[in-house]
Structure formats: structure tokens, C-alpha cells
Amino acid sequence: MLDTKPLLIAREFPAIQRADLEILQVNLGYLCNLSCTHCHVNAGPRRKELMDKDTIDIVLDVIKARNVKTLDLTGGAPEMNPHFRYLVQEARALGVEVIDRCNITILSEPGYEDLAQFLADNQVTIVASLPCYTQDNVDAQRGKGVFDASIKGLLALNQLGYGREGSGLTLNLVYNPGGAFLPPSQAKLQQDYKDRLKADWGIEFNELYTITNMPISRFGSMLMSKGQFNEYMQLLLDNYQAHNLATVMCRTTVSVDYQGDVYDCDFNQMLAMPALDKQGERRHLKDLLTHDLKGDNIEVAGHCFGCTAGAGSSCGGSLS
Hints:
Number of domains: 1
Distance between the termini: 34 Å
CATH architecture: Alpha-Beta Barrel
Largest sheet: 8 strands, mixed
Shape: globular
Strand order of the largest sheet: 6-5-4-3-2-1-7-8
Radius of gyration: 19 Å
Order of helices and strands: HEHEHEHEHHEHEHHEEHH
């Protein structure tokens, strides 16, 4: 795979610092039942990296020590980590909101038939990737049969109350562009999704998040192989909005990899750009037990223009 990191670190980006820690985003491993073309994690069925229980217990210790209010679980397919349910239950017992970044098709995999009910029983917020409301676009980006499995999963979640008004069970969807272009207006696209999914399938959900594709990992390699990398970077630069710096997710979110190493964001994790202390040493989860990251410098490079272009981008959708 072609590496875009040397090109990205050569580009300057404005300096930014951390604010109060609000969200602990934990990557439970790169194992996944899918291999999506836009995946910045390079996740797939053959990946072996998984967070062990000792590290998961440190996650819980950090939640208590730093009074973290939101635990954001990602992967791969985070549910494929054998300690996923233990972590969810322990975090919920602490009163923490738990977000599961679910690809929905996992609900149809053998051995996961009771997963949807488990998520509902523990009032887990689901953020589900669905890059389009049409079959052709979804299957082209994520693999043949993924759209049908996604619809089946969404219907099952709706039956449990997810996405329905008054249920208390939140179901948010995620849109990623299918190519080298920026997402459209989040508000308009959300309404399009709601109209089409309701009319075609009777599916309901709460919000749609639009997330810009980062020129790294699998997507970055695709740009390089097609000779589109420089053009895409210019698109990000031309649409840079300085006001988005105030609300980029790295200011309030810490990303943790499966080994417990700390990064300023999930994208930095994939670029092997760890969060560093004042001595230039990489930080580990254990450091968060005693150290407040507020005021620390954030590691930045050219891919950060992806979070600040246009309406901005974060794991919670557009910034403005």
C-alpha cells in the first residue's frame, strides 16, 4: 500500500492545544468482518490486533480518574473484541455514555445474533456507517451484499426502539464520500436519508453525521495510485476554514490504540503520530491516571486540513 505520511508531515498546519478531556475514544482492535475502500484503519477479517483485558481495565481506571463522560468504542468492528461486552457493562455501571461505532452488518454474523439486544439493554448509543441510501453505492464502497445486511440490521434496531422518538435509544448514521470530494451539507443530506430510508424501508434514525475522507491509509493509497492525491489535498486547502480550529475533535477527545498508546485523534493513530509529553516521549493510557492533558500541543500534519475544510469534520459529523 502506498504511504502518504511523508507528503502529509511536509505540510504545515496551525498549532492547536488541548482543552478539557471529554471523550475517550478507544480502538478495540483492527479485526473486522468488512474491508471498506474508505477505511482509514485498514481493518479487515485477517487483522489480529485486539486490545487485551488488562489494557481494558486501565481504560476503566482512566474513566474514573479523569471523570470521563463518554466512551467512544471503535475498531475494526469493536464488537469482535472478546472483552467488548465486559467493557460496555463496566462503563455503563460508572454512568458513562457508551458509543458503539457499529458497521451494522456485524448484527447478522454468526455468534452475534443477540448483540442488538445487548446494546439496547445497556442503552448504548449506536453510530452506524451507511455511506448511502442506495444499494449500488453502498456495495461499491463496502462490498457486495453489505447494503442488504445493513438494512436488515437497521430494521432489527428499529424494532428494539433504536432511532424512534421517546425510546431513549439513539441511532445515528454516518456518511463518507465515495470518492475524492467533500461531503455535501449535513442538514440537507440528513433529510434526504430520512425521507428515502423511511419511504423505502420504514427505517428511522436520529442524526446523520457527514465525515470527510482523510488522505491516509487505504483511501490515501487509492488517491496515490490514481494520481489524485495532490488534487485532493488542494481541495482540502482551498476549502480550509480557520474558525473550525476552535471545535476540532482533537481538542476534547483522546484516541487510544489497542495497545493502550495515546494519540490526539484516530487519524494520527493510523499515521503512527503518537501524543508526546514535554520530553518527546509517547504517552500511554497509564499517564492519564496522573496527568491532565489540557494545554498540551496537538500533533498536526497535512491531513488535519480534512477536519477543517468546508463545514469541518469530526467523529460527530460536521463542525458548523
